[in-house]
Amino acid sequence: MTAPQDAPRRILVVRNDKLGDFMLAWPALACLKQANAVLHITALVPAYTAPLAEACPWIDAVILDPGDDAPRQAQRELLEQLRSARFDAMLTLFSTPRIGWLGFRAKIPLRLAPATKWAQLFYNHRLTQRRSRSLQPEYAYNLELAEALLKRLGITPPRVAPPYWPLDAATCANERRRLAQTLDLDLTRPWVFLHPGSGGSAVNLDSAQYARLAADIERHAQCSPHWLLTFGPGEQQAAETLCEALGEHGLDAQLVPPRASLRDFAQGLAAADLLIAGSTGPLHVAGCLNLATAGFYPAKRSSTPLRWQTCNAAERRLAFSPPPGKESESDMSRIDLHDAALRISALLDRLAVPSGS
Fold first, then answer.
1. Cβ contact 194:242 at 8 Å
2. What is the DSSP letter of 196?
3. Record keywords: Nucleus included (predicted)?
4. In the prediction, which pLDDT does 116 show?
5. pLDDT at 85 over 70
6. Measured distance CA(116)–CA(97) in Å, rounded
7. What are the chain's domains?
8. Angle in degrees, CA 122, 125, 130, rounded to 5
9. d(CA 277, CA 229)
10. How many CB atoms lie within 10 A of CB 247?
């Protein structure tokens, strides 16, 4: 569809926090780009997520945010960069006073953000969402903001659907072949990736719980999968501990070798048939790839399975959390792991096993 001739064309989208938060912005980015291909989308992101921003098919350019603690010179350089880009609109998916003030000083004419806290004063368009109530997924809140911006531009928002990281079949096959050769894996068996790390923020199962879960899945699944453990910076020891525990249960488990970059690591997840993890960045990367996922969440209102739901197709995702209650909301030992194993094994059995060609 074509936008009016006088519609803004250059849009700055800000999501400058953690990996999982950034991946949950991809549906909103897809909405903007699919609405009108002539819209030029620039993402303002931290250096950590920049490699994935550069891989995102919905982003045309990337600007690095030096962060709140950067020296004044770096902040001035960022401001000049925004001014020289002459953006027509700014969409801030998670607003902070610094970013709001930055957009105001850059004189971006249309600035839209959630109507939260006093940072909203720097925006001339706001959308009331009340995210703290966790009434819908984070990616749905982001989509609402993208749709509101498009309507301000006189463009009808399109309907978008997963996968939000649509890798071509050849790339996925190459990732699977590469890992099969490295670890001597059977291409006809299902591959379950398990990420036991927490990324320093998310509550997750411990190694003993994951080992019991995996052993129970193995007992109930029709096919015996390869168990492949992934890990991030500082998490290798935890992954090794879990790998040993899985071996003691008689499971075929190996560590996925580290990759050269975050982008390589993320793209390598495309080799999985199913990914199991806490509510961390890898879980949400898998969601964007439309892989099957099983996520483990606390029951806190700010961290519920609904709020941090993966953005893959509904039939390809499972979520588990403790029963509600103040005393147990973060007690992951209260999750019924046997029920989780039954549901995960049933999902695994439904998945098509690649031919290995």
1. yes
2. -
3. no
4. 82
5. yes
6. 11
7. 10-152 (3.40.50.2000), 169-350 (3.40.50.2000)
8. 90
9. 10
10. 14
346/26 Cα distance (integer angstroms): 29
- Measured in Å, how far apart are the chain's first and last C-alpha atoms? 39
CA 267 centroid distance within chain: 12
In 3D space, the residue among 91, 87, 92 whose CA is nearest the CA of residue 107 turns out to be 87
**Which long-range contacts does 57-62 make (Cβ < 8 Å, 24+ apart)?**
57/33, 57/165, 57/166, 58/26, 58/29, 58/30, 58/32, 58/33, 58/34, 58/164, 59/13, 59/29, 59/33
Which pLDDT tens digit goes with each residue over 209-234? Answer: 999 999 999 999 998 999 999 999 99
Rounded Cα distance between 8 and 36, Å, is 11
Distance CA 46, CA 65 (A): 5
Residue 326 has pLDDT above 80, yes or no: no
Peptide bond into 163 cis (omega under 30): yes
Left if phi > 0, otherwise alpha if psi is -120 to 50, otherwise beta: which for 42?
A: beta
Which residue has tokens 């995960």?
344
- pLDDT (tens digit, 9 = 90+) per residue, 90-146? 999 998 999 999 999 999 999 999 998 888 999 999 999 988 888 999 999 999 999
